[in-house]
Amino acid sequence: MLACEWRTDEQNWKVEVDADGQRKTFIANFVISCVGYYAYDKAFPTTIPGLKGFGGQVVHPQWWPEDLDYSGKRVIVIGSGATAITVVPSLAEKAGMVTMLQRSPSFVISRPTTSSLDSCLKSLLPFSLAYWLIYWKDVFLEVFSTQFLLNFPALGRKVLMGEMQKALPKDIDVNVHFNPRYNPFQQRLCMCPDEDFFKALHQDNCEIVTDTIETVTKDGILLESGRKLEADIIVTATGLYFQLFSGIAPLVDGQPIEVGSHYAWRGCMVDSVPNMGFVMGYVTTSWTPGADIMAKTLISVIKEMEKTGSTSVMPVLDEKDRSKPQKLPVSATSSYFVKAADRMPKVTDEGPWYGRVNLAKDWWAWLMGDMSSGLLYSGGQRKKDI
């Protein structure tokens, strides 16, 4: 997408895109952004001293070379987040040595990809019923575990540390490498399927190092502790760049909308921007259920437009709502969230401007809440359906 402008006189959006090098224009009554909140053309800006002087290959996971040959090579993965947790097991299958180098630890929990209960339900019940039961069983367990960790952080930390200790080899100290400074869900928890990350650490060619980089040298990384890590390849899994709407500032009658100066209505629309929504999942729990309920909410808004014969709908705040304390829409303290505060719409934690917490609350708001609170519907009878 190159540009996106709402025209009040036409009551529609003019969207310009680059389609395989060809500029095309689309006219739409309603625009929904489903591109997530990461940039695809840039990464989180991180300074690694001496990196330009490295004599080997430097790879960022967002632009992974398809022809990268790491067989038998010494690979250092810099980072401790979800990207690092994901690539380390795969690299350890063929690399000569994989070192995950982290400045600070993260919580990592394992989740099985199959369940005997799920298999039993699928074999005994019709598919649709089994799917429904499995879905809500998983939602309940996820909401329960998330709220437990958020409300009882000390006990939650103890439980997580115990689970990680059981999965780790005995020579890796959980208190050194998996004991974060933050409480559970102050930053995102990393999940690995079927303990693949922990299984990789059981291999002779995989290790984890918690230290600070002093400088990158021609053939490796020198740490502040004095240890030298040799490397043929360095993977910079150091974070992603947060942005909404693919980094394009929507225009409303020629005026750019800076999203960070506005508020999020139910986490899926921005005040002062007509007929535009965005779909995102959750930060602290599974992405897909969060995206699903946001899509349902937007569909309900569009149905309300059709019901009332409106051509536009726009979130609006009254002075009472605007005077309430602002908060970020995510409670996580990850670096890329904190540094993106000026690019995030704000919330107040009250009414339709609340910050998204969990699926149960969002489902309740969708089922029982109305589609008029905080929204201004306007325009006459449309010439065609939305």
From TrEMBL:
The keyword Oxidoreductase applies. Its cofactor is FAD. The keyword Oxidoreductase applies. SUPFAM superfamilies: FAD/NAD(P)-binding domain. GO terms for molecular function: flavin adenine dinucleotide binding; N,N-dimethylaniline monooxygenase activity; NADP binding. This is Uncharacterized protein. Keywords: FAD, Flavoprotein, Monooxygenase, Oxidoreductase.
